[in-house]
Amino acid sequence: MVMEGRRDLLYNHFSLYCLNPSERLEMLIIAVIFDGKNYDCWGSAIRTTLKEKKKLGIIDGTLARPAEKENEEFLETNAWDMLNYMLLYLDS
């Protein structure tokens, strides 16, 4: 169960950890498919998309995994881990 005070991590659109219902693993997030030769075009498209979705910080390291805090049922680290997992497996 998510603690009431931490719900904003996942559901507040201003939160860095917010996951929109349309952001699912099976969703194509850019139209450019990486083919091994088009890195510049693909890289630009993926960075722009991830920045727009407030997810680029996980990829480029500017949004580091927060330290765990004791006595919290739902930690900010849980939200970071969920987002990181989603991004790791976008193209699986």
Name some characteristics of this structure.
92 residues; mainly alpha; 39% helix; 0% strand
Percentage beta strand: under 5%
Q: Indicate the radius of gyration in whole angstroms.
A: 15 Å
Overall SS class:
mainly alpha
State the domain count: 1
Which whole number gives the mean pLDDT? 80
Separation of termini?
29 Å
Q: Unreliable stretches, pLDDT < 50, 5 or more residues?
A: none
Query: What kind of oligomer do you see?
Result: single chain
User: In total, how many beta strands?
Assistant: 0
**Main β-sheet, in a few words?**
none
Shape: elongated
| Number of contiguous helices | 4
Structural description of this entry:
- It is a single chain.
- With 92 residues, the protein is mainly α.
- It has one domain.
- Helix content is 39%, strand content 0%.
- It is built from four helices and no strands.
- The longest helix is centred in the middle third of the chain and has 14 residues.
- 7% of the residues are buried.
Q: Topology of this protein?
A:
Layout: H1 8-11, H2 39-52, H3 56-60, H4 76-88
Describe this structure in a few short sentences:
By secondary structure, the chain is mostly helical.
